[in-house]
């Protein structure tokens, strides 16, 4: 597989695949929009700009962002099977949105995102603190704890959602869905860009932190500072994507693991590939969701969940 | 020991508690420059804790560590990382990094991630020093325990610090790899003038390779002397509470404690 690492041909192919997927993503849907319509048909152009472009952009940003966030979480917890799904982060983001809805009923998307950000950061912090406190290093034990942790948060959320008659809303966040992405309602997802930029700047430090506290300290780094920064940036990604498109399970788990199995864990080198695979994977899943029961849509969370859980099982069996 | 040069790494009245348990009770001493010092003692004597404190990994509850006449805690992380490195037991590391990538991280305090030609040269030297040239593009999770330990030691060598502290570097190694690691450490001292401190369990490795031995028992330093003086039946019995028979052959002392 080494030819994949730096061969120009490989990069060109990768780019072409991405462009083709973007093209299909932009021009697939119930409303028939073709390329030349954009120049003649004003209505279709508006629809294209308001709905199609945001959807494709959101898919790329969420796909890349959540995959990268998953890798960061895996490094900071030194566990392959930790991800936003298996650390309670997704449920925390949902709880944040719910809290915003209950206390500030007419809150803007931005306010909800801030709530989600706060809750996600706190929860991730608690989770990592817990992972470091218990010296039980069983690989499968930690994500199980995370799942339980998430379930508890989810149960609390559901209880309060029930009391306030918004259970349906919370259920909606459970399943990621890009069909409602529209101009004016999805811009929070661009928070992924600065988050990824920060992660790229700290890529080496995150890899070192992944080797453990004593390694980081011996190399003169402040381990705690890296952990705080990493968790904050992960929370940025998770909260902005949950607010705009909902929870996409397993994405942050399987993409980094598959990439790691092929090209390793030197984050500075693998980050672009993780971002790329995440985006491509989500674009494909979204297209599948849009085409399987055409003209209806299967929520992407369900598609990713089905594929993801299978890959997750394979990973558990392959990696000890 | 010649007293012409003052020891650079000194510690005074170090105390450490884990909860209510007193792990170190006001221990004082210093590490001889350009020597291998072995920290020995029964389980729970405080060896690893002392090593972690004098390498800034954990904070002591009382006392001071001074390094080059400055309090250890006053150093900036990166400055200290160029002078003193610590390698703990590699616990559960399934990172897929190549040996070369791992060793390159040893240059992080200097390079901040952008490797210069000089850094690359240091990395090459470090890999060659531990005899890992053929494995430099292998992922560390594919190495045997002994090869992996050598890869970590290579990283420490690339970090190029005068002081190198290692916590049980022979843990889980077979005899061949253990000997290889100890010979590498010996060469670090003899050829490059480094100061090495190790926590070690096998008394015979300490006897064969170290210049000095610091023995801990119940949170106190009970002996701190040249190796030859500590490798003595009476002294060892005092430290470990079992009988020792010291066999001398070709000027080397071998401890038999296995079945007396």
From TrEMBL, chain A:
Pfam families the record matches: FecCD
Species of the source: Sphingobacterium tabacisoli
Keyword Transcription regulation: no
Transmembrane segments: 7-26, 46-73, 85-104, 110-131, 140-162, 182-203, 215-238, 244-264, 271-292, 298-317
InterPro entries according to UniProt: ABC_BtuC-like, ABC_transptr_permease_BtuC
Protein name: ABC transporter permease
Annotated keywords: Cell membrane, Membrane, Transmembrane, Transmembrane helix, Transport
Domain of life: Bacteria
Xref: CDD domains: TM_ABC_iron-siderophores_like (cd06550)
PANTHER family cross-referenced by the UniProt entry: FERRIC ENTEROBACTIN TRANSPORT SYSTEM PERMEASE PROTEIN (PTHR30472), PETROBACTIN IMPORT SYSTEM PERMEASE PROTEIN YCLN (PTHR30472:SF27)
Family that this chain belongs to: Belongs to the binding-protein-dependent transport system permease family. FecCD subfamily.
Membrane topology field: Multi-pass membrane protein
Chief location bin: membrane
Localization (cell): Cell membrane
SUPFAM superfamilies per the UniProt record, alphabetical: ABC transporter involved in vitamin B12 uptake, BtuC
From TrEMBL, chain B:
Molecular functions (GO terms): ATP binding
Keyword terms, alphabetized: ATP-binding, Cell membrane, Ion transport, Iron, Iron transport, Membrane, Nucleotide-binding, Transport
Gene3D superfamilies given in the database record: P-loop containing nucleotide triphosphate hydrolases
Pfam families on file: ABC_tran (PF00005)
Main location: membrane
Location relative to the cell: Cell membrane
Protein name from the UniProt record: ABC transporter ATP-binding protein
Taxonomic lineage: Bacteria, Pseudomonadati, Bacteroidota, Sphingobacteriia, Sphingobacteriales
